Prior knowledge:
The protein is mainly α. It has one domain (66-253). The protein is 68% helix and 3% strand. Strands 1-2 form a two-stranded antiparallel ribbon. The two termini are 30 Å apart. The model has no long low-confidence stretch (mean pLDDT 81).
Amino acid sequence: MKTLYKITILLLTLIIVLGIFDYFIGDESFIQDYLRGTITETVGIILTIILIEIILGKNREYINLENEKKKLIRINTVIKIYLEKQNESAFYLSYRDKDLMTKKKFEIEENFPFSNLSELFYSSRSGFGNVKDTKASEYFNKVDILKEIIRTTLFQVDLINFPELSKLLQNYLIEVETFYPKESILNDLLSKIGDNNKMEKMTDYIEKKIENFKGEVEYSSSDFLLNKYIRLYKILKYHMYFNKEYEKLIKKYLK
C-alpha cells in the first residue's frame, strides 16, 4: 500500500512538472503534443493505481473482518462457558428448594419474586461446588469468574469491529461492580443480631425478612440491612437482560 502511494505521488509530481513545461512551450511545437500525451497517460496510470488500491483496500477489510470474526468465535466460546455456569448458580439461588423440581432447568422466570431468595444461605444444590458452599457464595464465585473473563476480553481483544458488543461488556462490569454486595452478604453468615438476652443468627433473621417481604423491590431508607439483598436481586435480574442482549449481538456479528 505504501509503495502505491509513493508511486502515485511521484506521478502527480511528474504531471505538475510536465504541466509547467507545457505552459511555456508554443502551441505549434511537437514537444507540446508529446507532453500532453504523456500527461494523459500519466493520469490514466494514476487512476488505475487508485482503482487497484480501492480493490485491495476492500479485500484487506474483508480479510480483517473475517479474522476478527474468528477471534470473536473463540471469545464467545469462553464467555458462553462461564455465562452458563453463572446461569446455573443463578437458577438454584432464585428458587426455593421445594420449587426446583417444577421448574425448567436453568430458566428463571422474568418476574420471579424477591421472596424466592429467602434460602440464599442454604447449601448449594448444583452438585458442583464445595460441599460447604451456600447458594449465595457459589453464585458470587461464578459471577467473579465471569467478570474476570469479560475484563480480560476487553483488555486483550480489539473489539473495534463489534462496537455494540464492546459497549455491552463494558456496561456489564459497570453494572455488576457498582455496589457489589458479595462481601457484605457473606459476612452475615457469621453474624448475629439482637441483644444479649435474645441473640439470633443473622442468616435466620434475613431468611424471615426476605420470605415475608411485600411491596416493590426497591432500596429502602429505613431498612439498610435489606438493601444489599435487594442489590443481589437486581444483579440477578440484570444478568437475565445481559443474556438476551449478548445472544442477540453474537447472532448479529457472526451471521
